[in-house]
Amino acid sequence: MYRAAVIDDEDVIVTGLVRTMPWAKYNCEVVATASDGISALKMLRREKPDILFTDIQMPGEDGLAVIAAVRSEFPNMQVTILSGYPNFEYAQRAISLGVVRYVLKPSRFAELEDALKTMSENLDGLAKESAAQPAQAAEESAEDIPVPGSGAEKAQNFIVHNAINYIREHYAEKLTLSDVADHVYVSQWHLSKLISRYTEQSFSDLLNGVRIEKAKELLADPSLRIWEISEEVGFSDVTHFSRIFKKLAGMSANEYRSHELCMDVSEKSAEDGEKAESVH
Question: What per-residue confidence (pLDDT) applies to 276?
Fold first, then answer.
């Protein structure tokens, strides 16, 4: 029996789907419902349904980010989107993340049943593939490593891209893995795994790398002291900042500043020389 869930901020839609869809006909049963993105993700992690009907535009949520999170954490989950948002490009982006159907509201019953039928058949196919796999391949599938070019892989890239952008925008704050994971709607553990897989860095290394690159830019201003730059880029301890800077830059912050100033002077001298030659 496949486990199904329904998510929508309109109770009438949730109730209608739960009561009228021929779940048993397609070997399904509804195990949970939700009315907003945050509680929905908690429910999905708890219940781990096989099939999901969900609205994509709920108050306060980034619909595509939520779908990416679902597809990334549960790559075999079959998802049909219910949307009152008739935008072709938006629908294309959602489908590229691996959703089965993008159904516009108000939805026809036949269209919804066809989506349920397709999702159930997809799960039947996955079950047959899994049964035919050798033990080693089955173990690898359990690692949730997506097939290259699949919707799940695109969803994971989408999440990592959003996470990196969020880090670049908030690096100066007291930023934690939990903060970033909440922003991209995945668990801390899952985000840590994705960052490691796609950047070959830990979250701390990625954050420190962004902070040190920003610190290098600020070092070009000789009026700023090292401790001021340290605080500016999000370090609460200048000693820790100095240690990380030397580790990543290969020299201390003061040495880097002196080196860059010398380079600027050399470049300016070269430019002045070229201008003098052109005059003569």
Answer: 47
| pTM above threshold 0.90 | no
H/E element, 7: strand 2-7
List pLDDT tens digits, range 257-269: 998 877 754 555 5
Q: Which domains are assigned to the chain?
A: 2-141 (3.40.50.2300), 151-259 (1.10.10.60)
Tell me the per-residue pLDDT of 72-92, one tens digit each, with 9 for 90 and over: 999 999 999 998 877 788 888
Q: Which two tokens stand for residue 142?
A: 């359990």
Round to whole Å and give the CA distance between 126 and 170: 41
| Residue 88 burial class via C-beta count within 10 angstroms: exposed 0-12, middle 13-18, buried 19 and up | exposed
- What CA–CA distances, in Å, run from 155 to 20, 222, 268? 31, 43, 47
Place of tokens 């306060």: 60
Q: Residue 214 class from Cβ within 10 Å (0-12 exposed, 13-18 middle, 19+ buried)? A: middle
Using DSSP's 3-state secondary structure scheme, residue 51 falls into strand
**DSSP assignment letter at 236:** S
